Structures are given as C-alpha cells and as structure tokens.
Amino acid sequence: MANENFSTNLRSICNEQISVAHVCRKMEINRQQFNKYLSGQIYPSKHNLNKICQYFQFSAEELNLESGQFAQITPKNLQSEPHSERSELENIIDSIPSENKSLSRYEGYYFNHFLSSGFPGYLIRSLIHIYQYKNKFYSTSIEHLWDKENGDTQRNRFKYKGAVFYLADRIFITELETLTNNVIHHTILCPSYRNIIDSLSGISMGVGSRNSHMPAATRVEYVYLGKQINIRETLGNCGLFKLNTKLVDSNIIARINNEISDSEFMLRAYDT
C-alpha cells in the first residue's frame, strides 16, 4: 500500500484546484494513474513524483508528512518562489521602482471582497496573500466560485500570482490567473494611515470569468486577517455571497457597490 500520508495530502491540495482532470492535463499524467495516487493504491514513480512536486511547489518530503504537519506548512505554497527562469516580464518588473519599506507593513493575508461580474446579485470573497521574497513583493490569490450559503457543490476555483508595488502613495497589484493563463487583473489600493491596518479600499480591473470575458472594473475592499492564518479554515469562508447575506459585514457590502453619484463621471475608490 502506498504512503497513506502522501495520498491524503495530495487529495488535500487537489481540492484547491479547478479539477483533477485539469491538474492531470497540466502535469501530463494519465488520469487513471493519478487517481491511484489519490486513493493510495500506488505511489508515483520518481519521474511522476517530480512532476507533482514541481506543479504544487512542495518537496517529496513535505508531501509525505503526517497530514496535521502538512496542514501547518500549507501556507508555504501561497508564498512560493516565482519561476526560476528569468523572462522579459520579470526584467520589466525589476525595473519598476517600488517603495518596499512602505510596502512591508502590508505583508499578510486578506479577504478581498468585490461584486461578481459573472454572477449578478452576488459578491465574491477571495483570499489574497501579500509577501516579500528577495526584496520584491508578490501576491497569491485563491478564488472559489461557489454559493456557500445555499450549499452549492459545484466549486470553480481560480488561482492568481502577481507582483506588488508601492508608488506615489498607492499600492499596485498585477496578477495572472495561473490555472488557465488567460486572465490578468490589475488592482490599485489606497494605503492605510492608521497604526494598525484593518482594511484597504481600491479599484480592480479585469475581465469576467464567464461567457463574454468583457473588460470590467469594480470597487474592492480588503480586510486584513494577519500574517499567520489557518489556510483551509479561511478558504472555507470564501465564495459567492448574495448581497443581502448576513455572513459579510454590511459596511463592506456598502463600500463595494459600484454606484456613481450624479456629481461624478467615473468609478472611484472610497477613502480607506
């Protein structure tokens, strides 16, 4: 029997993906073979184990940890090192000036709230992690599109990785959706002038996740959670919520509405 810890941990991280079929296509591993890894029937060959480790960005030793220990290091996957091979885009990122000293106080995990363009009448709460690596700041976001209140079992998942900059007293985040590689989001946040950060307000621009992929902009509200959190438990509180939900603070819902007053002619963020 293959290592039970490995199969348990593999199922755990696969649950955060769009689908097992999608994972298999990305890794180029036979689906039936992969199902045997998930069930613990067999243990992967060295070749396939390397593919799994590279895709999920965990070492073989970590994937074989007792499930409780593995759950404790899961946040590491949310702050993994960017791809080691340098690209022209990475060179461009390095050339952008950023006041990292100012940005360091914003490191940590946040709930991100915004109105859904694909599901009218709903808001989305996602999880974003802002972290520092080798004097640069990056972000990882996980978005679950499922109706938590109504027990929706169809869970579409999206994962974004991006770069974070602090310029002219504003926070800029540019993210690529890494599971499909066909969506880029841009977010601009107003900084917090309080001693303790509790929330950040801004504007996010991107395309809808369904059908037409039309460009759109929306107000966003980040709620600070801390530098250390329980990832699994926190993701359980993410998803789609109706606008009259009692599970999201009404003040947050009010701050992400996209109404424009008669005196304005464009969508603006609310002051933090």
How many distinct helices?
Answer: 10
> Structural class of the secondary elements?
alpha+beta
Which residue ranges are poorly predicted, with pLDDT under 50 across at least 5 consecutive positions? 78-86
**Average pLDDT for all residues:** 84
Classified by CATH, the class of the largest domain is Mainly Beta
Name given to the CATH homologous superfamily of the largest domain: Quinohemoprotein amine dehydrogenase alpha subunit, domain 2
Verbal overview:
The N and C termini lie far apart (55 Å). Strand 1 and strand 2 (122-133) form a beta hairpin. The chain is built from 10 helices and 9 strands. Helices cover 27% and strands 30% of the residues. The protein is of the alpha+beta class.
In short:
By secondary structure, this protein is α+β, with helices and mostly antiparallel strands. The chain has helices at 4-14, 20-27, 31-39, 46-56, 60-63, 67-73, 88-95, 100-103, 231-235, 250-255, and strands at 108-115, 122-133, 136-145, 156-167, 170-177, 184-189, 199-207, 215-226, 239-242.
